[in-house]
Specification:
mainly alpha
Length: 88
Amino acid sequence: MKDKNESRIVMHIVSLVLGIISILTSLFWYMSIPTGIVAIIFGVKSYKKIGSKLGLAGMITGIVGLALSLLIYITLFIILILENGGIF
């Protein structure tokens, strides 16, 4: 029983740390997207199981990091298309 309770405590802390890493590495999609997704998953699990506010914060930071990374790369893609005269 003690091991299960410790894993729940660690899960929401890991979620928050991965969410922060996702935000900080938003220019590097190969780090930001996986850490953001894992932060969201861990945050949702810990928030649903024990109602952890740290899990909710991890979920939010994971969403922000993932959205920021996607926004940066979609914007760069659109700029490259417009610079080269369009798709066709």
